[in-house]
């Protein structure tokens, strides 16, 4: 997934580069936040084989509904959202639901168990400092923490991935 897209050029380059998912941020404090109209214009020319991901921080139903409609989202990615709320949002038909889990220590992984059955996918992301944006900081955590961990559902990595280290992440 290429996330935080805000220009036609970045959208087109991501699609041309083979991205399977494009992320659109709907969180006003983020510099990557998009208005519904802007997100809709970017999403309108995304090929159907590429998933459109809305990135949210503990959103209300209205925000999700408006973003889903505007950007024709196929996936919602939730940060700082309780497992119960993730499960509620997952009940929306036709939407895959990802829950971001901030990780700094092996103990942080234990929270993944509470997402079993609530989320379609857990997105392990670096824990950011208190007061910082949740995710989207390009920060990487120690991926060795995942070695031997039994994931309760499908999962993916986020944060700090680039051309120099993505092979190591696999």
How is this structure best described in words?
The relative contact order is 0.13. The longest helix has 11 residues, at 61-71. It is built from 5 helices and 6 strands. By secondary structure, it is α/β, with parallel strands linked by helices. The protein starts with 7 loop residues before the first helix and ends with a helix. A 6-stranded parallel β-sheet has the order 1-2-3-4-5-6. Helix 2 (36-43) packs parallel to helix 3. The protein has helices at residues 8-16, 36-43, 61-71, 83-90, 166-169, and strands at 21-25, 51-57, 75-79, 96-103, 121-126, 154-157.
Specify the structural class.
Answer: alpha/beta
Q: Specify Rg, calculated over alpha carbons.
A: 15 Å
Distance between the termini: 14 Å
**Biggest sheet: strands, sense, closure?**
6 strands, parallel
How big a fraction of the residues is strand? Answer: 15-25%
Low-confidence stretches: none
Number of H/I helices: 5
- Give me the side-by-side strand order of the main sheet: 1-2-3-4-5-6
Find the count of extended strands (DSSP E, 2+ residues).
6
**Helical residue percent?**
10-25%
- Label the overall shape: globular
Mean pLDDT score: 93
Order of helices and strands: HEHEHEHEEEH
């Amino acid at each position: 997934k290429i996330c935080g897209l805000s220009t036609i050029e970045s959208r087109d380059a991501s699609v041309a580069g083979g991205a399977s998912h494009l992320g659109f941020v709907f969180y006003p404090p983020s510099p990557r936040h998009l208005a519904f109209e802007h997100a809709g214009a970017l999403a309108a020319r995304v090929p159907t084989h590429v998933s459109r991901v809305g990135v949210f921080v503990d959103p209300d139903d209205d925000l999700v509904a408006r973003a889903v409609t505007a950007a024709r989202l196929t996936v919602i990615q939730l940060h700082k959202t309780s497992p119960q709320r993730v499960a509620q949002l997952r009940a929306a038909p036709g939407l895959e639901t990802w829950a971001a889990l901030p990780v700094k220590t092996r103990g942080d992984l234990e929270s993944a168990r509470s997402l079993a059955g609530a989320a379609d996918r857990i997105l392990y992301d670096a824990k950011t400092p208190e007061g910082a944006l949740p995710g989207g900081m390009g920060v990487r955590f120690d991926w060795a923490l995942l070695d031997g961990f039994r994931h309760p559902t499908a999962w993916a990595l986020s944060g700090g991935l680039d051309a120099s280290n993505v092979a190591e992440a696999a």
